[in-house]
Amino acid sequence: MAKGYQANKDHRDEISFFGKAIGKRAGFKCEWCGHKEDLRVWDYRPTAAPEMESLALLCLRCRSWAAGGKATGNELHDLRNALWSDVPAVAEGAARVLAQCREVWAREAIEESFIDDALKAELLK
Predict the structure, then answer these.
(1) Ramachandran region, residue 110 (left: φ > 0; alpha: ψ -120 to 50; beta: rest)
(2) What is the pTM of this model?
(3) What is the pLDDT along the chain (125 residues), one digit of tens a residue?
(4) How many domains are there within the chain?
(5) Which of 42, 51, 74, 103 is least surrounded by Cβ atoms within 10 Å, i.e. has the fewest?
(6) Containing structural domain, residue 6
């Protein structure tokens, strides 16, 4: 148990190393919806070593959606602009959340985005 705890602590320490740089990149607002409160770094690929492209600055609401929380289609409209980010954690992470919404506008937004075609196909099947 101590080994897992230490590995998790080490991973969190690695992520914190990027905190200021990610905040500057994001303009100190949520990279998905633009909110400015309760921001934290979110790890898109938690099993890999943290790097700028795999981390995003998200608010509490968006982090809850990233963790599988439910949202209405109206709430998810704020995420559309994130699909155009050149940061995979921002664009691909938002696409995964939007894919949970079965509304036409969400599917069209994913189709029109610049995310990887293989990921688009996986999300839209």
Answers:
(1) alpha
(2) 0.88
(3) 467 778 777 778 788 889 899 999 999 999 999 999 999 999 999 988 999 999 999 999 999 999 999 998 889 999 999 999 999 999 999 999 999 998 999 999 999 999 999 999 999 98
(4) 1
(5) 74
(6) 2-124
